[in-house]
Amino acid sequence: MIKTYNIYFDDIFNGINVKYWSKVLLISIIIISIISMITLPSLGYANDYGTATYPRVIIYCIEDYNGKANDLERLCAAADTFASTLTSNSSAFVYILQNNNSRPIYWWTEEIGGTPNVYEHAYQWHYIIFLGHGSPTMIYFGVDDTHKILGNVNYVGLASYWYINGAYYPEVYFHRVTFYSAPKWVTLASCQTLNLTSSQLNDILVNDFEGRGGLSNVYLHGIVGMRSDFLDVVKNLLGWIVYDAAVETMKDYATRLINNESIVNAWSNAVLTKQQYSFLGFSFQGHPAAVTLIIQGYDSNGNLVAQIKYDTEKMYTIGTVYADPNTVIQSYLDNGWKVVVTWEHIKW
Amino acid sequence: MRHRIRIISLIMLLVFIVQLIFVASNTLSASSMHNNIYINNSIQGMRLNNIVGERFSIYVVGKYDTDVLASRMIGFVWSGGSHGFVRVGSVRAGGFLVDVYRSADVKIYVSSHGFVRVVVGDGMSLPFLAYSVIDKNASLLRGFLEDLMGVRGLHIVYAGVGGEKSVTEIVETVYPNGTHISSGPVVRIVNPFDKYYVVLGGLRIGYPVKIRGVDRDRVGGGAPRIQYLELLAPRITSKYSFVVTKNMVEEIKKYFDSAFKTNVNVSKLVIIDAYLLLSEDKNKLLPTLKIQEKGTGNVLWVQLDTDKTIFISAATYASSDIGSDEPTINIPTTITGSDNELNNNILITALIVAGIIGISIITLKKKRH
After folding, report:
1. Is A239 in CB contact (< 8 Å) with chain B?
2. Does any CB of chain B come closer than 8 Å to the CB of residue A189?
3. How many CB pairs under 8 A join A and B?
4. CA B138 to CA B79: how far, in whole Å?
5. Are A134 and B318 a contacting pair at CB < 8 A?
6. Based on CB atoms within 10 Å of each CB, which residue in A95, A276, B52, B87 is the most buried?
């Protein structure tokens, strides 16, 4: 015999003020949404390796050099274009610091005079982009900050280290300063910053990657930049911009990242195709460069058993991202493997 | 009669527009990587003011028969050996009409202005031997180019090794017992080539000669000695010289002021590179100056003619320490696509023109009735 029951909607809410609790629910959702909007940019991480649920990108762009160098025209427009292109089709969060808001103290280590614990500091972000004046191993800002050794200066030396109170400290060391941060890639859209001699390359590896503490201190996955000059704009005789080179380059870079190209390929292809202009039938080509690494593990018989090539790494949430080099190296050593780290300075 | 003139004018206008569309739609591809190497000359680094009174040469450029030029290049690449090839079409790149020749294992691109690219196989897979080893003092290259360009006593400068890309490697090895060994740096060049410059009257032709040699001992008989060759060797028919005047310098200053909306102090203008480049009509090799406002990233290119200067371009770089130039000509690298592109273009143009003529005839006939 089958029993049937009639259940009425009103029975469920019997004794409950539905109208009142609907309002409570609605207000709760609004409050949670507001809190999420404020806190997500700095709290949205999934695990111990500083991996966010989305890529965190900071861009420093300088057009106005306050008379310290010639002003540039379209580098902040290029930063905006990169940000809008990247965020239009990915979960990336992009924070742009323009002109005087971009400062050397946001790149220096604490011992040198930097402020790694502030939100604007490069070490708080996964992907760091600089657009401004450069020269081999150097980037330039429009404002002075107080460097503990150099006094008031407007530049940052990627290959520099200093002797303070009996110890050597790197001027720049991309490492984790909070639970949430772990810089992965640096992009230097500036002239010749990666046009390096062997000794400059070595200094960048020892300082920026290893923090003068060896392989167990390596967090950074790579740096991409220029071995040649970085073109801002091309003009005609009337002063009109006839080719918006920096904007085109950064737009193409973001598009390639979204389209799942590796960071090295996205940057080099964007530069090779967009840092290019022609006259009289001839083309004049800008040339990219990159510094990154390969980690290989060999067992006791000398067989290659594992390897990670960071030049194939893509942007987080878009493609494959590897664990930080120090973690990989330690895990290989824990397995009893010989570890071979090959640093590569690639110039196109 | 009036209708006929109108229709004919209409046809001509439409044909012109179609041609314009095809010329404008020629796209350029990225070129390979080359090392920037300064070829020093007496005016590089000189203040613009100081070139007043300097004497420069202008070289008048003739045209090659591209069939003959292709044949001579094959002779140089194969060291005098014969090698059959046929002309398969033309491509237009950067304002150059480039004829394309091919055989089973070689592709040759030549323009009547003296641009040449020869690619044997894929240009990189034959056993490599540096051309600077094959032709130790570049005497073979010099003799060939002197004969080709019609210039005696040509000066050839070796400018080092270039390549598609170079990788400098530093290796750190860590053993489980904590032993740590470092080695390097080692430089690895991908698809290397030797680079030379042809120097005329103290200035280099801006476009470098790029050559990738073949280790013939490892290939066997009949192999070429070169697997990749690229150069610009205009045929020089005559030359004349001129002296830079104060007016020319003032003209350049005006270009600078106009392009960068400034009033530059002419003493701050410095020549950061100087080389010979073809004129816009491609009939002359003209001295081309890259001029920078000192301490800024603002740069201007001008060409010098006998009694005038020609504004070429202006640009702003993110540096005040700006390198030298290495112009290239971007030829579409996929020969099949490029050849077919032209053939397809001709076919499409012919169809469109035929269609336009047909419509015009029908319209004309209707009007008559």
Report:
1. yes
2. yes
3. 196
4. 14
5. yes
6. A276
Tokens for A135, please give them.
């020269």
- Written as one letter, the residue type at A264 is V
CB B120 within 8 A of CB B227: yes
Q: How many residues does chain A have?
A: 348
B24 alpha-carbon distance from chain centroid: 19
Per-position pLDDT tens, chain A of length 348: 344 434 444 444 455 565 665 665 656 555 544 444 433 333 223 333 345 578 899 999 999 999 998 899 999 999 999 999 999 988 899 999 999 999 999 999 999 999 999 999 999 999 999 999 999 999 999 999 999 999 999 999 999 999 999 999 999 999 998 777 789 999 999 999 999 999 999 999 999 999 999 999 999 999 999 999 999 999 999 999 999 999 999 999 999 999 999 999 999 999 999 999 888 888 899 999 999 999 999 999 999 999 999 999 999 888 889 999 999 999 999 999 999 999 999 999
Question: The tokens of A123 are what?
Answer: 């070490």
CA B235 to chain centre: 15
Q: Are B232 and B69 in contact (CB under 8 A)?
A: no
SS3 B316: strand
**Residues β-bridged to residue B212:** B228
Neighbours of A29 (CB within 10 A): 10
A344 interface with B at CB cutoff 8 Å:
yes
Which helix H or strand E contains B345, and what residues bound it? helix B335-368
pTM: 0.79
A272 has a chain B CB within 8 A of its CB: yes
Q: Please, which contacts does B343-350 make with residues 24 or more away whose CB atoms are closer than 8 Å?
A: B343/B89, B345/B22, B349/B18, B349/B19, B349/B22
Q: CA angle at residue A81 from A80 to A82, to 5 degrees? A: 90
- Burial of residue A12 (number of CB atoms within 10 Å: 0-12, 13-18, 19+): exposed
Residues A268, A97 contacting (CB under 8 angstroms): no
Question: Tokens 């640093």 identify what position?
Answer: A343
Contact assessment for residue A61 and residue A96, using Cβ atoms and an 8 Å cutoff: yes
Contact B239/B287 with Cβ under 8 angstroms? no
B236, two tokens:
């020089």
CA B184 vs CA A212, A341, A342, B253: distances in Å: 18, 12, 10, 49
Task: For residues A72 and A62, give the distance between their C-alpha atoms in angstroms, rounded to a whole number.
Answer: 7
Q: What is the DSSP letter of B307?
A: S
Structural tokens at position B107: 């592709």
Contact B173 A236 (CB under 8 A): no
Per-residue tokens: A269: 């292809």
Neighbours of B355 (CB within 10 A): 11
- Cα–Cα distance, B14 to B17 (Å, whole number): 5
Interatomic CA distance for residues A142 and A132, integer angstroms? 9
What ipTM did this prediction achieve?
0.82
**DSSP summary character for residue B138:** S
Q: Which residues pair with B115 in a beta bridge?
A: B232
- Amino acid at residue number B40: N
Contact by Cβ (8 Å): A226, A347: no
Closest CB to B329 among A245, A282, A347 = A282
Task: Look up residue B82 and give its two tokens.
Answer: 């014969």
Rounded Cα distance, A307 and A312, in Å: 12
Q: What is the 3-state secondary structure (H, E, C) of chain A?
A: CCCCCCCCHHHHCCCCCHHHHHHHHHHHHHHHHHHHHHHHHHHCECCCCCCECCCEEEEEECCCCCCCCCCCCCHHHHHHHHHHHHHHCCCCEEEEEEHHHCCHHHCCCHHHCCCCCCCCCHHHCCEEEEECCEECCEEEEEEEEEECCCEEEEEEECCCEEEECCEEEECCCCCCCCCCCCCCEEEEECCCCCCCCHHHHHHHHHHHHCCCCCHHHCCCCEEEEECCCCEEEEECCCCCEEECHHHHHHHHHHHHHHCCCCHHHHHHHHHHHHCEEEECCEEEECCEEEEEEEEEEECCCCCEEEEEEHHHCCCCCCCCCCCCHHHHHHHHHHCCCEEEEEEEEEEC
